[in-house]
Amino acid sequence: MTAHPPPAAAGRYPQAATAPGADAAHRSDIPARRLLLVHAHPDDESINNGVTMAKYAAEGALVTLVTCTLGEEGEVIPPELAPLASDRDDTLGPYRADELAAAMEVLGVTDHRLLGAPGRYRDSGMMGAPQNERPKSFWQAPLDEAAADLVAVIREVRPQVLVTYDPNGGYGHPDHIQAHRVAMRGAELAARADFRPELGSAYAIGKIYWNCNPRSQVEEGFERLRATGHSFPGIATVDDVPGVVPDSDVTASITGDPAYAAAKAAAMRAHYTQIAVDGPFFALSNDLGQPLFGTEHYLLVHGDSGAAAGEREDDLFAGIGEMVGMEESARIEEAAE
Ligand SMILES: [Zn+2]
């Protein structure tokens, strides 16, 4: 096995020569549309948002991924890599950092960071596992400390849109629940001028979404899986899919060029220790097949929908154009004073 370089904590996109303290919204070299995603482990971003990330990166938006832990406690699928596991060599974290980098390359995402410094927060393991109690586990991190690490990113990047999990983290994993809490608290604190001004000037995110999966799509996917030949020892159930909601709850659906779905599948494949992909299906370490979705769905929980009343948005930035315009005119007024 080759040595793995430590993952960088921040600042993956090219730094232009600008005035000190210039932030994303005031720099002409930074894309006008900026999307921030907060995830618990490497692979969650590709499974949940691979299509969305590929689409917005291809369209020229700045896509920033913050991953809270390196997933050190994950189970390892390929038998030849079993020694990486935390109960053996405990070298899975750096290996997964490399898998994440490969996945981001496939999705065209250049700005991916770990929350805080590399190694700051460790995978907490499944709920109830003894690893939950380790002092360095993400589950034990004081909320406002971890949120402050995110505030620094929010105030630097100034994203109009934030994507994270629902309050149950989609399926109850402690790191997913904590990632949700940190994302929501980070967004709140970033907007408060009295909170840690040394982390940058206050910034309010326009729209916040939680990942979800509409029940009809999930059921249809499992029907397709049962009707198709596949290589998995068994099939998962609807209950194994995180964030399943009634169709009527969904407020945004993102799809697009089939190349984005292909990029998502390739990104999931890059997480080789965690995911086995077989055509339009995949399995995690439980070996149970489940559908790989080419359309991703969201619940708008903060900000105004850009769609007509009763309709779903097909763009997470819908309605943001006006907000960007407002920022722009405020700046012109500022400059005129
Ligand atoms: Zn995860």
From TrEMBL:
Keywords: Hydrolase, Metal-binding, Zinc. GO terms for biological process: mycothiol biosynthetic process. Residues 1-25 are annotated as: Disordered. Its EC number is 3.5.1.103. GO terms for molecular function: N-acetylglucosaminylinositol deacetylase activity; zinc ion binding. Binds 1 zinc ion per subunit. NCBIfam families: mycothiol_MshB. Catalyzes the deacetylation of 1D-myo-inositol 2-acetamido-2-deoxy-alpha-D-glucopyranoside (GlcNAc-Ins) in the mycothiol biosynthesis pathway. PANTHER family: 1D-MYO-INOSITOL 2-ACETAMIDO-2-DEOXY-ALPHA-D-GLUCOPYRANOSIDE DEACETYLASE (PTHR12993:SF26), N-ACETYLGLUCOSAMINYL-PHOSPHATIDYLINOSITOL DE-N-ACETYLASE-RELATED (PTHR12993). This is 1D-myo-inositol 2-acetamido-2-deoxy-alpha-D-glucopyranoside deacetylase. It comes from Streptomyces inhibens. The gene is mshB.
